Amino acid sequence: MANPTVMAASGTRLKSQPELTIVIPAYHEEKRIGSMLDELAAFLKHDQFFKRKAVEVLVVAADAPDKTKDIVVAKQKLFKRLVLLEPGPKVGKGRDVQYGMLRASGRVVIFMDADLATPLYYLERFYKTCMGGHDVVAGTRNILKHHPGVIRRVISNIGNILFRVAGGVWIEDSQCGFKMFSKRAAQVCFAKLSITGWGFDMEVLAIARANNLKIASYRINDWRAVPGGTFTEDMLSTIVHSLRDLGRIALGRLTGAYLDRPDEQLEFYKKLV
């Protein structure tokens, strides 16, 4: 595996535990990671709420034949703490998010997509909800409004209904890439994560429910689809993989595999280090 972290070029380190860690999976994102980090840096610097907060940013970039990693390193001077994490060869978005979430040091941790489909001002609402006693705060979208095409809308709605049964979580939309966790909830949920692809969103919510973590959700009414994404799977493959993942989630709940066991978590973190 490549060097797992590249510290800020200036050597800047936060003097205390970050109040928030932002994890950004960024496989093959050279076309938009630069502008995304520019916008995020400006927001954290000027926002009345977050400019007083210690914020850590982790960009997780699996190996790709592009300049994503170089662009991230070049942007490090814009942040108090920006770390590039390199998990190695491409496996899937779930693996990359897990890699970052388990290495986050913030009191609260969020993962968000590099396309900024969810406006950054939602960070404050999610943060306050998490600090107010919720373990997990999930963004949701209006599927009928945001998914193009009748067939995709129908499939998405059926998938969400099946997830409510398999995962035990009654949520409008499990796939929105904007979810915040308390530090403990992130450790519990992502240490148990087994789905490394796009179905990880569903599994992480199922793990939270299995451990009686307090879940809140917010509708992102101004979520927007951003062109230029790296997801290329065809519709049939998506359906097959989603059904497989739902089966794994149902099995995980039935067998108790998702329950947090401190002894298992200790062994997991020993391997992580």
Number of helices: 10
Structural class: alpha/beta
Please trace the helix and strand order, writing H or E for each element. EEHEHEHEHEHHEHHEHH
Instruction: Give the integer mean of the pLDDT values.
Output: 88
Per DSSP E runs of 2 or more residues, the count of β-strands stands at: 8
Report the portion of residues in β strands: 5-15%
Keywords:
273 residues; alpha/beta; globular
Architecture overview:
An 8-stranded mixed β-sheet has the order 1-4-3-2-5-7-6-8, with helices on both faces. The model is unreliable at 1-11 (pLDDT under 50). The protein is globular. It has helices at residues 33-46, 68-74, 93-101, 122-131, 143-146, 150-167, 183-191, 200-210, 235-255, 262-272, and strands at 5-6, 20-25, 55-60, 82-85, 108-112, 136-140, 178-182, 215-219. The two termini are 14 Å apart. It has a single domain, classed as Spore Coat Polysaccharide Biosynthesis Protein SpsA, Chain A (Alpha-Beta Complex). The chain is of the alpha/beta class and 273 residues long.
Question: What's this entry about, in short?
Answer:
The protein has helices spanning 33-46, 68-74, 93-101, 122-131, 143-146, 150-167, 183-191, 200-210, 235-255, 262-272, and strands spanning 5-6, 20-25, 55-60, 82-85, 108-112, 136-140, 178-182, 215-219. The chain is of the alpha/beta class. Strand 3, helix 2 (68-74) and strand 4 form a beta-alpha-beta unit.
Helices and strands in order:
Layout: E1 5-6, E2 20-25, H1 33-46, E3 55-60, H2 68-74, E4 82-85, H3 93-101, E5 108-112, H4 122-131, E6 136-140, H5 143-146, H6 150-167, E7 178-182, H7 183-191, H8 200-210, E8 215-219, H9 235-255, H10 262-272
